[in-house]
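Bench notes, afternoon.
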Amino acid sequence: MTELTQRLVAFVQENLVLDGDDIKVDETTPLLVSGLLDSLRTARLLNFLRRDLGVAIPAAKLDPDNFRDVVTIVAMVRELESV
């Protein structure tokens, strides 16, 4: 697992899993299907990506397919970093 993947998994586990939820997040945990991403949590994730990782996600990338799991988010971030 890359450092970026580890940081994202840790962020999701610590900041998006509600207290009392018995969810162990890994890089393939379905974020939308599991209910871990709603509008507020997505905003928190986007803020983390911008503030902590230095990657602003443009509106054109705000597609559910880009936020299925940590693997797809990492792929999107890598793509944006290479532009």
